[in-house]
Amino acid sequence: MLCAGRLGGLGSRAAPLWPGRAGSRGLGARIRARGVSTSWFPVGAAFNVKPQGRRLDLFGERRGLFGVPELSAPEGFRVAQENALRKADLLVERVCSVAPGPQTVLIFDELSDSLCRVADLADFVKIAHPEPAFREAAEEACTSIGTAVEKLNTNVELYRSLQKLLADKKLVDSLDPETRRVAELFMFDFEISGIHLDKEKRKRAVDLNVKILDLSNTFLMGTNFPNKIEKHLLPEHIRQNFVVAGNHVIVDGLHAESPDDLVREAAYKIFLYPNAGQLRCLEELLSNRDLLAKLVGYSTYSHRALQGTIAQSPETVMQFLEKLSEKLSERTIRDFEMIRGMKMKLNPQNSELMPWDPPYYSGVIRAERYNIEPSLYCPFFSLGACMEGLNTLFGRLLGITLYAEQPAKGEVWCEGVRKLAVVHESEGLLGYIYCDFFQRAGKPHQDCHFTIRGGRLKEDGDYQLPVVVLMLNLPHPSRNLPTLLTPGMMENLFHEMGHAMHSMLGRTRYQHVTGTRCPTDFAEVPSILMEYFANDHRVVSQFARHYQTGQSLPKNMVSRLCESKKVGAAADMQLQVFYAALDQIYHGKHPLTASTTDILRETQEKFYGLPYVPNTAWQLRFSHLVGYGAKYYSYLMSRAVASMVWKECFRRDPFNRTAGERYRREMLAHGGGKEPMLMVQGMLQKCPSIDDFVSALVSDLDPDFETFLMDSE
Fold first, then answer.
1. pLDDT digits (tens, 9 = 90+) for 362-407
2. Overall pTM > 0.85
3. What distances in angstroms separate CA 34 from CA 431, 450, 462, 664, one per listed residue?
4. Which of 213, 518, 543, 620 has the fewest CB atoms within 10 Å distance of its CB?
């Protein structure tokens, strides 16, 4: 696809760098440094107070969303998209007339950028803006740009201009590695759309792509759709835990944290009861994906999806999952025995362990063993303190400071949004992060990162600064109380900030591979690595202070919190292995050997251990099959890489500047412009094997002896 943003939610492609240059430092030397602004102010204070509004700008000119002049009103989206499409037409003419060479790739990237700058921004606005008129205008812009991208992906003349370059071995050999990789990525995106096929097959590929998109949207909506049951079928004391509408009880989730076994059982059986329409939709989606993969030259959809990833092939993924499952087996059995023991203690009449039990009883065991009541921790984790903690960490590791900056009138979509300038000690301004952290009506309940504008080196030698949004759902501060985070919220904040730093520091020449635009099983590495920092007492002790007394969070409370996460962790990881294996089988050889529900049952028995519950179809709620089709394993593989990086480079000293610079140079700086395994090798100074990945994940489950020493003091 020409527009990188069309391919991933968090932004999931990638980018490289000049050979022999020190990551983005090499690039930084070629562009003008951005100076320090006198309008910046400390980041911590910006998040612990309610915004006071913009008294001085009441009658000022509106600058438009993200500073884009056209977007001061919803109608501006039409202007922005028309401008982008006009520019795209000119760039298509230009690239088709220019002689093949490095300029071809630069024009392709500028073409991609002109479309992505509207589409990526609109993708965010259509789900996050509180005003319906803006959301609707953004939705129309997405559709318009999407249609244009589909046409470009089937433009044979455009395809041939790139093909001429890549067919000339002498020319290809003269390209620097980053330019060559970007050219190959553009070609890959063309060919998975079927442009290299004859006219009839090309039309078939376009039709399949459209059908897959429609089926994906339908399936995604169905994964969240509530189920209902006649209320007389449920006892009164169970019924009152759900929404009652007329003669029916509405069940909209699993109620996994309910202390009542019967409530969890009822929710599980009702919410997961198979819907015939959703079942057909999934079967059609999987079948059409397989047809498209075969049409464009792959034996399965999984083979197509895993091209260019760390894993490279479904065979490697299954080897990884099977080895991990084998290593987890005894630990998982011990976890289930422990959880079963707690269930027997609390509910002796019904002690059989069922799939709806582990989340609740694991939580009970954690609370009983480690005394980790969130209310004990929240006063130490004010949002401002956590932001200062991130600021300290980035300063010591990477020489980066986060400054709050007052946005112009109309620049943000909601009063509570904060704007951060990301500034390097010698390179100056690197980009902007808009922090949409607070709850509001209609806001999606998800923590995520959006690329609004990718970084790239422009023709005039200036660098187009990246712009991203981080979206969380935190409580608002009040006059007397700052926003207080639970430990889980704090960890999520660190995770999402890992994505943001990847976007800021993936300073590639081409926006098509900037920041998080990299293979999915690498894209989560920087964010998961930040979770290790968030769980290290040396890092936490730098910022965790009681918001009233200033008292530091005791070290043993940090360690207890970390150890509590290991309760039931093997069973949790085994569940992820099951999900990942199911995803691979669904996207493997077709026709499938059985129904999706029978495959679910067989895979659950092999990879999980708890019994399948008749008349349930969990796969119909598996929303990740849309965005992470054939790639769900990525969470596990990214965690394995992050674990290895932590242990090799940061566990001894989480503030080691030399290790931080190496991390930037070897992993963050390249975005998706370098093969992911080469980045991992550069960081670890070795080529990790599947066994290394498995060992890293399993060793994270081992108890930390230091915790026991501290608790005994």
1. 999 999 999 888 889 999 999 999 999 999 999 999 999 999 999 9
2. yes
3. 10, 23, 10, 20
4. 213
Query: For residues 665 and 100, what is the distance between their CA atoms, to the nearest angstrom?
Result: 31
Sign of CA dihedral 340, 344, 346, 352: positive
432 pairs with which residues across the strands?
A: 421, 467
Could you identify the residue written with the tokens 């006892």? 235
For 418, 458, 466, 521, 553, the CA distances from 430, given in Å and listed in that order, are 17, 15, 7, 25, 33
Q: Do strands 418-424 and 428-438 pair parallel, antiparallel, or not at all (unpaired)?
A: antiparallel
CA distance 435 to 415: 11
CA distance 456 to 273: 48
Question: Residues with catalytic annotation?
Answer: 496
Q: Are strands 448-453 and 467-474 parallel, antiparallel or unpaired?
A: antiparallel
Tell me the C-alpha distance between 509 and 458, whole Å: 8
- Which residues, other chains included, contact 353 with Cβ-Cβ below 8 Å and sequence gap of 6+? 336, 339, 340, 343, 610
Across the chain, how many H-helices and E-strands are there? Answer: 30, 11
| Cα–Cα distance measured from residue 346 to residue 595, given in angstroms and rounded to the nearest whole number | 38
**Rounded Cα–Cα distance for residues 676 and 14 (Å):** 9
Angstrom distance (rounded) from CA 520 to CA 412: 29
Contact 289/301 with Cβ under 8 angstroms?
Answer: yes
Helix (H, G, I), strand (E, B) or coil at 139: helix
Q: Which residues of 482-514 are buried (b: 16+ CB within 10 A; e: fewer)?
A: bbbbebebbbbbbbbbbbbbbbbbbbbbbbbbb
Cβ atoms of residues 465 and 530 within 8 Å: no
Q: Are 458 and 525 in contact (CB under 8 A)?
A: no
| d(C-alpha 522, C-alpha 673), whole Å | 12
Single-letter amino acid, residue 340 = R
pLDDT, tens only, 680-703: 999 999 999 999 999 999 999 998
